[in-house]
Amino acid sequence: MQRIISYDTVVEQxxxxxxxxxxxxxxxxxxxxxxxxxxxxxxxxxxxFDQYQENSKIAESTRLPLCQDTGFAVxxxxxxxxxxxxxxxxxxxxxxxxxxxxxxxxxxxxxVSDPLxxxxxxxxxxxxxxxxxxxxxxxxxxxxxxxxxGSENMSAVKxxxxxxxxxxxVDFVVNSVVNAGGNPCPPTVVGVGIGGTMEMAAILAKTALxxxxxxxxxxxxxxxxxxxxxxxxxxxxxxxxxxxxNVTSLAVQILHHPCxxxxxxxxVNLNCHAARHAEVTI
Length: 282
Fold this sequence. Notes:
This protein is of the alpha/beta class and 282 residues long. It contains 8 helices and 10 strands. It folds into 2 domains: 98 residues, Dihydrodipicolinate Reductase, domain 2, CATH 3.30.360; 126 residues, CATH 3.30.1330.
């Protein structure tokens, strides 16, 4: 039986997500981020974590953004096959909700209309990036993961040879994070996509960032790989804000997918220490 959902309901829920994602760290991020202070040994490194905690409290209480870069609005949507909007389409509703949310919450608008020749601000933070997946059921699940330029610019994709194997993956991910230095505002969360095609690996890496922070991959082989990569990254000494310390990254989170026998695509996507995301199910 088909369920009709109001277009306006989707718009309002998306607008609310924009404010929530910009101002509220989720419980899993708070737990991992604030406990990481105990692993630092210098006063400066510890002080950064005190500042992160204070910034989080201020954002929550004043409804001011955690970061001035309120990011590209990136949505991961699971749309039930038995759902229909009462008018228009899900893309229009999400973009209108983004426009409304970024306006009502006074969030910085950062999107330019053309990447190369006509870099004029669209003034409403649209169009959004929408990853849409059709699923069974009569609900819509919407996850917003705003992506700031500092961390997004440190993304990397490499088409490894299958013979590069595990060590090739480890070296590429570790080098990508270490070479990023302080640009992505570490300590970072490291999303890694392995397999698929070039574009699939990148989507996997970004999707991996949505996993509950600190929860290992279900496949123990990949969970062990996550632990090894994280240990090597943190041994680099890059530290909070790239100024030295024991915690360069809070977690490494991997998703994988079958790939062509001649390929081994690997992608890295970073979140800064304010790993922002919010979700709603309608």
